[in-house]
Amino acid sequence: MERSLGSGNMTRVQEFVLLGLLSTRQGIRTGLFAIFLTLYVLTLLENTLIIYLVCSHSELRKPMYFFLGNLSCLEMCYVSVTVPSLLVGLRSSPCHVSFTACIIQLFLFIALISTKCTLLASMAYDRYVAICRPLHYPLLMRSQVCLGLAMTSWLGGLLVSVAKTICIASLSYCGPNVLNHFFCDVSPLLNLSCTHVALAELVDFISAIVIFCGSLLVALASYMAIGRTILHMPSAVARHKALSTCASHLVVVGIFYAVVLFMYTRPSRISPTDLNKVLSVVYTMLTPMCSPVIYCLRNREVHAVLQRTLHSRWGPSARTDLARS
Questions:
Q1: Cβ-based burial of 115 (10 A; exposed 0-12, middle 13-18, buried ≥19)
Q2: Which of 124, 303, 103 has its CA nearest to residue 188?
Q3: Tens digit of pLDDT for each residue in 173-196?
Q4: By C-alpha distance, which of 169, 192, 166, 173 is closest to 270?
Q5: What's the mean pLDDT when you consider all of the chain?
Q6: By the 8 A CB rule, do 213 and 222 touch?
């Protein structure tokens, strides 16, 4: 598990032990495994459906659905990075991962969560332009702009992840090697380092300011402008229609940012607790599962496309069943 470093007595950890969501009773772990596996499969199916509908129907080739397709692709990758180690820990607790596998998981997690923040900010900006500047919407949200925003989100997430992962991977880990979490995260790894972590904490803090706080400010500014515009609309029907187009996004953004900012904007070395793990479950599993339902499946355009798809493939009975739901 460990190897010697130089001539000293220090050793380098070769493997980490993830405690996961520990429970003293096997029955509870088995029940949690079944629940989380079901949620994981459901999340993959929901987001796959959204991507299929957006790509296969010309009615949904709009900026809002372009970003939703990107978000669904991200959510599928997101849960596939963190949930498998959670499931393995529930089946064979604790879960053992090599140092390299842990760092790879950390890199992917940071890249995806950073990309998600900037994508959510881009979606908020899209709603701002649609409601506050509708006459300029075709120009401001043309395909080149949307593609540029999406590429910036993905590339920005990768760059941030490279910087943070290099800093954390270069630290010395000489034992203990037990992570009180269900995946390799920043704070648990910093807690295990036996060398100075000032540089890693500084990079973590700066990235939190740039990515998390920066994208949050963009989202807040967009929705403050949307709120002012809605209040000045002459009719209640127009206000309700405008509010309905962004209310679901605002709810998901609020939940996601509240949890992430609570856990990651502090550079200090915090000890993972049961509350941290519960909050991690919220933004790594529950939010990706609920996002397709909140964003799309109750959206009239998506619902109509889904009805036509089911009707063309399985006949009138599927359409009738969906309409009743």
A1: buried
A2: 103
A3: 887 888 888 889 888 888 888 888
A4: 192
A5: 83
A6: no
